[in-house]
Each structure stands twice: as C-alpha cells, then as structure tokens.
Design goal:
The chain has 125 residues and is an alpha+beta fold. It contains 4 helices and 7 strands.
Length: 125
C-alpha cells in the first residue's frame, strides 16, 4: 500500500484530513513496553485532546509513523518501545497523513485489531 497522500497534493488546506482504507501498510507505534496491551492502542482522552487543541477527528485516531526512524525521532521516554503494525484491508481500518512531524499518521481502528496485527521492532543499542 502507498502512504496516504498529503492534502497539498490536492491543493487542499494543510489541516485537511484525507483518510483512506488501509491495505497492507506497516505503521509504527510507540508503546509503553515490549508487551503492548490494548491500552497502548486507545485514542487519547477528550481532556488531553482539548488541552492540545486537537479536533475530534484526530482525537479518535491513534498516532503512528511511516518508518521506525520517524517513531524513534519523536520518542521521549527511554522505556518506550516501537511496535510494527500491518494495517490489513477489510478490517475497517483507515489511515491518514496528519500532523507536523514528518511521517506522522493517524490510524482509525479498534485496539483489538491493532494488537492482533503487531510485531515488536528489535531494539538497536
């Protein structure tokens, strides 16, 4: 699957969200440990989104990245790990390029669907 397009490819405003059905894209998610649970794949709370000024469409999704390097570049906790998740077609999963960080994605899916498709990325010393 190709990475979802950016809004500027269609002369749309930068805040536009173009969500497409997932079809085999592997995305990378920062998790709290090497044994992620569904908590690692839940959307942010309304309170956190309100403080950050996120629109509801983004709050309902989960932040992921197009590459391992993109995820590592934003990692703030040394204890966090990176999970690779293959976003399978036909599972009701959608994805969009969002945010100001290069390679940032928002993924809309149930936590269970994401947990069922993950593999941990080996740590590089």
């Amino acid at each position: 699957m190709d990475i979802p397009p950016r809004p500027d490819a269609f002369d749309l405003p930068p805040a536009t969200v173009i969500a497409i059905p997932a079809a085999g894209l592997t995305a990378y998610r920062l998790t709290r440990s090497s044994r992620p649970s569904e908590i690692d794949f839940r959307p942010s709370s309304q309170a956190r989104a309100s403080l950050a000024g996120w629109p509801e469409i983004l709050r309902c999704g989960v932040s992921m990245f197009t590459t391992v390097a993109d995820a590592r570049n934003v990692r703030q906790r040394r204890t966090s790990r990176i999970a690779a998740v293959t976003l399978l077609p036909g599972k009701g999963v959608h994805v969009a390029r969002t945010g100001r960080t290069p390679g940032h994605l928002t993924v809309w899916a149930s936590p269970g669907a994401l947990i069922g498709a993950l593999a941990m990325v080996p740590e590089i010393p």
